[in-house]
Automatic annotation (TrEMBL):
<feature type="transmembrane region" description="Helical">
    <location>
        <begin position="42"/>
        <end position="61"/>
    </location>
</feature>
<dbReference type="InterPro" id="IPR007248">
    <property type="entry name" value="Mpv17_PMP22"/>
</dbReference>
<dbReference type="GO" id="GO:0005778">
    <property type="term" value="C:peroxisomal membrane"/>
</dbReference>
<keyword id="KW-0812">Transmembrane</keyword>
<feature type="transmembrane region" description="Helical">
    <location>
        <begin position="213"/>
        <end position="232"/>
    </location>
</feature>
<keyword id="KW-0472">Membrane</keyword>
<protein>
    <recommendedName>
        <fullName>Mpv17/PMP22</fullName>
    </recommendedName>
</protein>
<keyword id="KW-1133">Transmembrane helix</keyword>
<comment type="similarity">
    <text>Belongs to the peroxisomal membrane protein PXMP2/4 family.</text>
</comment>
<dbReference type="Pfam" id="PF04117">
    <property type="entry name" value="Mpv17_PMP22"/>
</dbReference>
<feature type="transmembrane region" description="Helical">
    <location>
        <begin position="147"/>
        <end position="169"/>
    </location>
</feature>
Amino acid sequence: MLVSPLTVTFVQSTILNALSNILAQLIDQHINSPKPFSLNTLALLQYVTYGILIVPINFYWQRALEARYPGFPTRAEIANAFRFSGRSCSPAALFRGIRSFFSFAVSSLFTRDPDDQLPSHKEREKDKDLWAPRARRSGLHCFVMKFFLDLTVASGVNIVLFVVLINLLKGESLSRTWELIFIDFRPIMSARLKYRPLVSTLMYTVIPVDRRVVFGSACGVIWGVYLSLYAVV
């Protein structure tokens, strides 16, 4: 019997989320309590439940993102963006290459490809699918868009969902949960941006779409420890 990609992702991510919470409890009790380790089952169940609720959302987000911006950047596109010569590896050349890449990245967010044709009014009315892929987008452009959306839209939504779900599972009221969104959003986003760019780069260059949530969970075990500690395990 074939198992669906969502089921595989669901099981693997749940195991990784449970592992990160147990590690967080070990760290927390080692620092704050001289007593032998005692598993906080309620905290574990709360965090695993949060993971169970969040996995399908992220799974279908990654699929929608790939449908809208399909493909990976080619080596030629990356080399062209960096405008690097193999014989020019000085610090100044490296700086120019990085500057050129990010200039390309920013311009990709706000410009259309020359090959794109402006749709007619009838075509715009006919195309109701927000996530339909655009024709002839370069792999590098698609990478830049996925990278940008992952660090902004996806990060913001995931943090809000974490604060809301964890606090509701802990029994907080809706009004208190709303207050905590404004209190907790900035520090959690700041911590996320310290590791997520590297994860996003790998996800959108080498990882197949149906493995991205699991890959993110595997890379984010330490992130899961941080979230568990933040939730006061």
